[in-house]
Amino acid sequence: MYNPVLRPGVPTSFTDQEKAEAISIRDVVRFVRESFATILVAALVCAALGAVFCAVVKPRYTANAQILIEPARTPALLQEPSRASATLETETGRIESQIQVIKSAQIAREVIRQHNLLDDPEFKLPEPRPSLLTRLLGSFQDEAPQEPSDVEAARLTHAVDAFNSRLTVRRIGQSFVAEVQFSAEEASKASTITNAILDAYIKADVAAKADSARRGSAWLTERLNELRDQVAESRGALERFKASSDVQSASDRTVKLAQLESVTQTQSRLYDAFLQRSLETVQNITYPVPDARIIASSVKPQAKSFPKTTLVIAFTGLVGAALGTGIAMARNGADRRIRSVKAAATAANCSVLGMIATIPKDRLVLRGEAARKGAAARAASALPVLRTVWARGLGRRADSDFRALKVAFSAAQLAQPIKRLGITSPGRGEGKTTVAANLATVLANPESRVLLVDLCSDDRTLSRTLTSDRTIGLIDYLADPQALPKVVVRHPKVEGLFVLPLGSAPIQGSPAEILAAARHRPNLEALGQVFDIVIFDMPDIDHAPEALVLASLLDAIVVVAEFRGTSMDALADTVASLRGSRAEVLGLVVNKVPSREMNA
């Protein structure tokens, strides 16, 4: 059998573990739905700021070029080509070394000098702007003026730093190709400087090789002169030995001659080798071959490399969405109003009897000016809440919700008899009168007489809308218990429903407190004997805490809370106060629940 008290998704009680697991997928979906506008606005605002940044900041263009650094092929001096590679550094280390040469200050200074970048705004040293304090302190100090050479050195140092900050050189994979990138505010400038860097590097490499060859040639020339003298001396010694007529044995003379010929041949071969290397060195000086060549010159870039408009807007949009989520989470954490039925049940630590969907304002009890109209108008709209439930005027959803509440109440009566039921709430305007009136309507039938008692002296909604011409009511009944048939009003449309208004007599104190007084308790008992169920529309606990005395005398109390209206702290305090006064809290009714929350 269906029991709303055990309705899926609306737990009747919560263990400590269930309370710890307060956040569910439904809560996340609810948070996103409620905070979507905040997140969207924050994302759009940050994305707009990103677009403004892209429009205001100076763009940069990056030019690319590629250079091939040839493997080492020139053997070391006086070293066989087949064995020269053993003394060379590894090719990886050589490539990285050449990359550092391209990024060196020497190349930067050469390009800066060629293109006169010292006066370019991107590389120019900004004029010093001393602060007021610096100027005041400087007036008491005698500083020597800077030398022009120092100023020029500072300008060059700043230009080199700015130049290197815009330069990127990297090796492409494991190849011998290096990619050179340079960024500038103008596309043509970036391309020109990139090509100039490669040209300066190749020129520096050629110059270094030529200088090395010149130094080697000078050393070879000096060494050749020494070897020439040694060869001439050894040949002279050989000729003199051949022409000498010293008396020696034939064997000694043969050995001596062989030694002199061997020395002469060795020195001659060494001389020939140095002579050949000297010729090669002179050739290198005449036409040195660089170890690198350009394989892809830079062209003028067509698109800016900074800022990336699409990427910046997307990133700032994501940052804005994260910021909006944080704002929404902070606001949600600070907002203690009921946002889910589960949270309300957890805060109140009691079961949920039912949820009532939001009722359109034009179908609620008429208040204010409409309630103060003439007797005929009030009679025509008398107790529309009760009438519309009976005539399905609240809509099918609300009718179904109140009938489900009836089933929940009937299920609770199986556990314990409930003849006197109090309806209250933590604060005003949370719909307890609507719940009380409609619950009384759906419970009333020819076999079950239901009395609805108005105890709200500040509001008197039931009394005004039903008994516009009644001047007697509850106070008169308390003064004369025999007057009950006179003060009770039978509803003309709902059979079995009766209403006990407050009446127009002045009241000294709270009606709930007066009814709970010891001398009037027999009157309270008598109402339970005459009617099957007595429903008291009690004042809210916040403005009438004296109602707690009456609550302890009733069989059960139903607490009405407004979705997104009632504070969970106030709800918890109300339930705790009722239980502290020994009142039996039957459960919680969450009112004004949006349709999407009802369907969740």
Description:
This protein folds into 2 domains: 61-128 and 146-296, Bacterial polysaccharide co-polymerase-like, CATH 3.30.1890; 338-598, Rossmann fold (3-Layer(aba) Sandwich), CATH 3.40.50.300. Helix content is 53%, strand content 12%. It contains 23 helices and 12 strands. The protein has helices at residues 16-20, 25-56, 81-84, 91-102, 105-115, 132-138, 148-165, 187-243, 250-286, 309-334, 341-348, 375-380, 384-390, 396-415, 432-443, 461-466, 474-479, 484-487, 511-516, 521-530, 547-551, 568-580, 595-598, and strands at 61-69, 167-171, 177-184, 292-296, 352-357, 420-424, 450-454, 489-490, 497-500, 533-537, 556-562, 585-593. The strands form 2 sheets. Strands 5-12-11-6-10-7-9-8 form an 8-stranded mixed sheet, sandwiched between helices. Strands 2-3-1-4 form a 4-stranded antiparallel sheet. A hairpin with a 6-residue loop joins strand 8 (489-490) and strand 9. The radius of gyration is 51 Å and the shape is rod-shaped. Mean pLDDT is 80; it is low at 1-21, 74-79, 81-88 and 364-392. It is a multi-pass membrane protein. Residues 423-597 form the CobQ/CobB/MinD/ParA nucleotide binding domain. Residues 22-114 form the Polysaccharide chain length determinant N-terminal domain. GO terms for molecular function: protein tyrosine kinase activity.
